[in-house]
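Usage example:
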Amino acid sequence: MTIHPPEQGRWLGVGHSSDPDARAAGARAADDALVGADPALLIVFASVRYDLGALLAGIHERSGQVPLVGCSTAGEIAAAGPGDAGVVVTALGGPGFSIETTVARGAKQRLREVGAEASACAAGVASRPHRVLMLLTDGLAGDQSEIVRGAYGVVGAGVPLVGGCAGDDLRMQATHQLYGTEVLTDAVIGAVIGSDAPLGIGARHGWRPVGEPMLVTQSADNRVHYIDEKPALDVYLERLDASPEVRADAASFTHFAQTHPLGLAGRSGEAQVRFVSDAGFEDRSLGCIAEVPQGRLAWLMEGDDASVLAATDAACVDALAPWQGQRPLGLIAFDCIARRGVLGERGVQDEVERVTHNGQGAPVAGFYTYGEIARTHGVTGFHNQTLVVLAVG
Amino acid sequence: MRSTVNWSTQQLAEFLALVSACTDVRDATQCAVERAAEALEAEVGALIRDGVVEASIGFPTGEVPHDEIAAIAAEERNRIEVPGIGPLRAVSVVLDDEALTRLVIARREDDGFDSEELGLLRAMGRVLVLTLRMLRGLAAERTLRENAERERTEREHAEAAYRKLVERLPAIVYRAEVGEAGAWTYVSPQIESILGFSPEDWCADPTLWERRLHPEDRERAIADEQAAARGTNVGSSDYRMLARNGQVVWIADDAILEQDDHGRGHWHGVLYDISDRKRAEAELEVRAAQQAAVARLGQSALEGQELAGLMHEAVATAAAILDVESAHVLELRPATEGFTERATVGWPEEGTGGVPMPNSRASLAGFTIERGTRTTVRDWSEEQRFAQLPALQGRDLRSGMALIIDGPDQPFGVLELHSRRLQAFSEEDVNFVQSLANVLAEAIDRRAAEDEMRRRALHDPLTLLPNRTLFGDRLAHALLQSRRRGSFIAVLFCDVDHFKLINDSLGHAAGDELLTGVAPRLKEALRPGDTVARFGGDEFAVLIEDLADEREAIEVAQRIGALFTRPFVLSGIEHFVTVSVGIAIAREPGQRPETLIRDADAAMYRAKERGRGRYELFDQGMRARAVERLQLENELRRAIGRDELRVHYQPIVSLESGAVTAFEALVRWQHPRRGLIAPGDFIPTAEESGVIESLGRWVLERACRQAADWHAATPDGFPVGMSVNLSARQVAQPDLPQLVGEMLTSTGLDPSSLNLEITESALVEESAAPVENLAALRAMGVRLVIDDFGTGYSSLAYLRRFPLDAIKIDRSFVKGLGVERDSAAIVDALIAMARALSLGVIAEGVETATQIEELKRLGCRQAQGFFFATALQADDVGALVGSAAPWLGAVRS
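Running the assembly step on the lines above writes:
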């Protein structure tokens, strides 16, 4: 638990618990997070191992009617370090905050529409000079970039987007979104934070393209069928010289693919990373967490501890830029589960420490995601294998 | 990442791939704007056409700055303000030749758009234009194709529906040449299902149509066709045809005539199978006939036709309409457990003519009654449930039905139909017969109700005995008969003694129980042909015919008396009841019924007078007395008007002070010829004749007025009461309290000064309960006294029912005081009883000082009698009041 003393009445608190009893864990984490007066929002990241209804009940026992958003995770992040089977509650409040929340259900069938619906809350806080729309989505619902496009279509370029896709400890079965007392699935939750103080966003991955670019010659939504006119899976496995196990076993492939994403060329900056989620052993296709446009140039990407951790620092620096060296109220991290795979347990511990260090000891909360959302410039806002940091001042 | 490997080319390729994958103009436009913005990492993108923004990205919903975008498109400016991120650098490229459509992109960068980016944008614009053109063409073509497809589908559907319709029609579509040998050139397949011939068979044989026409319709059908061919008849023709299997099919033939190019006529027509319709029409006719038949029968019933005639009409109607050989009404006779034939049609020569038939559940009728529901026999040869009655056997019956004719309490019987043909009676047929049975049931019901009304008009509802009217009729008839036969008849008038007492003390239910018990005892005493009637209340009359002498009548009266020695059980308790009987015998020709009844009544009164529980024979002495009484009655009626009545006053004296406490008003009749008549000699006549009402009112009025006068004359010294006797009849008068109230008001007498004296018998004997009257009087403040106490029923419990103030001990008990020990004991008991009821006690008939002493000893406080004074005229009363009274010594001693 990290307590950050209130500054001029504004505060952000983070509470963490891994009590196996869901209700007790919720109550405990909420107790620790609620460190100031006039709480405006609770953000809950919790393991799917909990009875999430009981967990929320435990939190509500302490927080009452304060708006609550959240989701299930593939691991939770707190200042003390990354963890599993726990809950992290972030609470913020005090003067100068305006919060509106929305939930949109039935995401699978209409991704873009729910993205738009979940963003409807943004209009409610137009009076604050700084705004950010946080989206918590069902990471298994489909092409997440469509959700982000839907949101962008509603809020426009003036409101940055941030957030992540809910996880389920890599079970890949069902993720949950938390809204008030409701435990949902196949939903998108929007929470717009309006603030008198700046809100900073940083997003980096640290992966590098390797080898010759390839042309995506046939794809549909999240599935890449052909690369350079050849079956995509074969090209992928060939170029990476994958082991026979990876070539035949789905779980082995997913594990392998965590550290071997695709990169999509952009006009400038880092290439967009696409987490390869599964292999179509029958049709020799590749499944990705988000859209891989047909006709796009793509690379195989590589990364190591150093490059990934360097990205961590870079994301924090970007997020904290508005404070020019001042300490923020707190940091919220949306960190890709695949990065955890690359860094290993030691590495992720190091990463969290770096975030805390960058934040000058400000409270840190977050979770390991199935996809990250960050849009500060341009239109594109959905990422893979990326660390997104939201700094609240 | 700005790749060295032809970044703009691969961006364009991706753009082309995405935009060309769009299936409509709107999606393609939006996609193009978004992808162009993405490619250039721009925040804002828009497509504007003819000044209208058709797609955009980067603006909040509803906040698209149309004018600014239009200005950029017109190259009037190159920056755009987006709230939240400030000004953006903007660029626009032309999409079509007319420069009406432009793609606008704006980005948050200072370095502007380089030539490669602008080249890419223009290329994207061309791709989009081409794509949109293609999509629009495709859309148009798609619309055309869709329209054509829809039309084709609709046409196919319509054709399929038409085909289905035609094939489902119970009709044969045909084309045939005109003329006798005209070939059938087309027949639709339905001919197979309608007439059993295949189209090929039909077309192969031009004579088939004519040959399959029903013989009865053939001539007409051919004539119709020929007339139609000549043009002299148009429209359809209905006729019957014989299908291949011989079944009759009704056909409506509807055809038009057309000439071919060679001038030959062809029929284009449709043969409709209208068998169902014809059957329905026939069925309707039958139903109409059935309804009319039921209506006719109902009408007959309403017009009051005799039941026998009605039943005959019902069976005749049922047989005729349903075409069955026989129909019967069988009445259920529970007593003999059989049926009696009440009406029959079909086998008149063998009708059972009222001979009972057994009611066995093994017969159709018995089964029907037992089941309580209609029964139909489809085929007697297969019937398992019951067998044919012997009377019906050997008649070759095949089908039948039986329906219940309801009766008032139980089924009256059944209406049975039998057919020698196998007939499947339809539900409607059975309902029709049921309707007939219902009409009969209603008529039977009505007849029963009428009989009941007649019976009620002539019978007493409680005992079911003939009433006075019927008795009078029978008596008149008997008198005529007796004259012819030279025999006597007798009327016995019987009255239950103390009936009112039973009614009042045990309740009306017990009273009714007694009356219903009396009736059979009276019947038991009679011969079969004699009549017992109830006249009302506890009065019964008996008519005995064909008497040889009066001895026989007396024997009947004795038998009655003997039968009453057995107790009656009322409300579970045995009660002994006696009856007083008066006998009148018609000996002379021409005697009137009412005279005979009156004589018997008079004799019964005599029996009552002589102690009840006995009989009296009316004799000449009674007749004389009756005549005398009639005369007295007439004179009495006139007496009031002629001022022949007087009221005398006898003082009632306090045995403690000797003072007069009250006067008893006693009426006297100053008869012009017979002198002064005592009340006992005319009051009974006055009561019997009803004169008592006006007489009583007169006395009451006179006494009240006198008392009021006395009170007015001596307001301090004359606080005495006035006792007035009320007859039983007066007590029963409903308006008695009102009458007394009016008297008190008109005379001004204080109610507490008025004592009304009532005999015990007035309380016990009269049928109308006087309790309400007495309570009302008491409520007014009037005092109530029982007169002649001890002579009647004298029941403590009984008296408790009435709101009384005092009792008067009868003179017969006072008379023996000082002489007989028993008398003192009785008076002692009476006084004790009165005390227990908080009643005052007045002794009557005091004549001696000894009696006064005894009364004082026993605790009696008031007395009256000759010892004090006889009844005096009003003027003589004054001398007795006050200290001058001559009896003071005796009283005070």
